[in-house]
Amino acid sequence: MSATKPILISGAGLASLLLAQSLRSSKIPFKIFERDASFVFRAQGYRLRLSDEGLDAIESVLEPPLWAKFWDTCGKTGGSGFVAFDAVTGEETEHVVPERLSSRDGKVVGIARGDMRRVFAEGFEEHIEWSKHVTGYELTEDGVKAIFADGTRSVEGSMLVGGEGIYSKIAKQVSGGKIKVYDTAARGIHGQAPSTAFKGLGEGVFRIRDDTGPDGAVFLITNVRSGDKDDPNAQLGWTMGSEPGVIRPPNDDFSIVGKQAADVAKSLTKNWHPRFKPLFDEMNEWEAAFWKITCSTPSGVPEWPNEPRVTIIGDAAHSMTPAGGIGANTAVRDSALLGRLLREAGGYKPGVTAAYEKEMRSYASEAVRQSYGTAVQAFGIKIDEETSPQV
């Protein structure tokens, strides 16, 4: 890499790492600052479904050998397609293969978040500085510096990209507080069980819904890929969600992992049909984890005066509910777009962040509106921009 001042990236999430791959291919220097001590410091979360747009964005960035590795890591689910069940009766309520679910070759393409992160980080781990919590930035005469939680500053960069998720301090600062993330009050649980627990489902994408609870609906989404059900050593994941108030982590502490989360999942599903009970009876209790469902301003990504040397990507710019599975796909589109603009400019140039934000704001706002609208129907959530709590 050249001696040019690097692009500074806050956060080592999916969007940040994919942007770094783009910069590496373009021979543009960069540095990543991550608050965690390593990739295994926190649970990696649930499995992600990749859309056409998401896959196209990723393929446009990764060099052919790494793209081939990524594609091989992805699971491709066909089988019975998309099937919905009544959780209590076990009866099938819907059996379709929505076009929006299929990505390539008529298959649903997905990958575990942790696997995706590892592939995206390949080849530049030495450019990641761990245990560096970015809390703001300061502009210099000819660049920008990241400010860390301990009060120290980073090296001077030509540009700073905030990609540190829904709690991004960069997003708050650069937008003048216009970027807002709301707590929808809905909670979920991630769980894992051995492949033997999924025998009653077969291959496909499944939604299981229970509307009989006194406090509201509970639903579970999972997918079983080709070969999974025949591998006794495979651990498959499921994601449970609910209407607000149904899933209640102790003290509303959604960071809890392990048996407490598993016990709540088992309690909520105690009356489910025997076909689905093995998902909970055989679950790996120590892998269970609560999660909080958040969303940015439902009307879309707000406008703010452009700061030429600072911008934001991924959840820092547009947090979405899991409804529709479009959050990660929108985030990688950010990475591909900003990376392409920087490549075409040969690195930082005035106007790059403005051009990026104009295009990002268009497609990301539509994605946020779509995700929120789906979540209103699926989760029963409602965001009031005047009264709903922010994270």
TrEMBL record:
Cofactor: FAD
MF (Gene Ontology): FAD binding; monooxygenase activity
Domain FAD-binding: 309-371
Signal peptide: 1-20
InterPro entries named among the record's database cross-references: FAD-bd, FAD/NAD-bd_sf
The keyword Methyltransferase belongs to this UniProt entry's keyword annotation: no
Pfam family, one: FAD_binding_3
Gene3D superfamilies: FAD/NAD(P)-binding domain
Flavoprotein keyword on record: yes
Protein name per UniProt: FAD-binding domain-containing protein
Highest classification ranks of the organism: Eukaryota, Fungi, Dikarya, Ascomycota, Pezizomycotina
